[in-house]
Hints:
It is a single chain. Helices cover 46% and strands 20% of the residues. It is α+β, with helices and mostly antiparallel strands. The protein has three domains: 1-102, no CATH class; 107-210, Tetrahydropterin Synthase, Chain A (2-Layer Sandwich), CATH 3.30.479; 250-283, no CATH class. The strands form three sheets. Strands 3-2-5 form a three-stranded antiparallel beta sheet.
Amino acid sequence: MASSSVQQMDMTLSRRGTSGYQVFDQVTTDDGGSLGCCGYILAALSVCLIAITFPVSLCLCIKVVQEYERAVIFRLGRLLSGGAKGPGLFFIIPCMDSYTKVDLRTVSFDVPPQEVLTRDSVTVAVDAVVYYRVQNATMSITNVEDANRSTRLLAATTLRNVLGTKNLSEILSDREAISHLMQSSLDEATDPWGVKVERVEVKDVRLPVQLQRAMAAEAEASREARAKVIAAEGEQKASRALKEAADVISESPAALQLRYLQTLNSISAEKNSTIIFPLPMDLLQGFIKKSSERL
């Protein structure tokens, strides 16, 4: 909103003629003062000009703003009371009033890639997308020269400031928290401008080529280590299963003979030229006992 020194006024000029056109005139300010002599003279001349050129003057006096727009009107350089006008028709006085249309729709823009030095001394290039809208048309005109440009510049500096306090691992894995922190910081900073920052999204994080290679090598080594651990665990489980199977077979010699026959059947199905004669273990018991006695 305008400061206390900015005088607000409400002027209506009145005159009724044969055309039935009517305008009211009342000029007041916040401090109870008036426009002064020059202001009243200009107002009277404007009323006369409107009356003389009626109805052609309606083309200059009546303006239209869309549903998503608002018009901020200044009368002799002072903000008109009642706030922004619209949507629809509104009336201005030529030679006295000037107005600016403000778009209230959500606007998105890309933050250019920013070279950021993280807390762990790694240089990364990060870009983002910001979504914002003007929620107070009067403040966006009176409190800042260019709300759009100022928001863009502030978004770039905020991105650098926020990422400068994070480690590389946090930037890569916790983008949602970074986006929320940026949105809160931007929204708080742009609130005096009448701008509402609705959403911030981190698009891409580009790392140096050497760092990418180092991270790829680290990831590959980590995967190889996990593969070796998994293979060792598998061999351990397999050896336990084989030991349990050997214990079961050792309790029944007939089971070992059946195992020989199964092996012979599988080999003969795959390689017909190979013939294996299973040797019963009972025939080897005598040799095993003699060898053990010699030892």
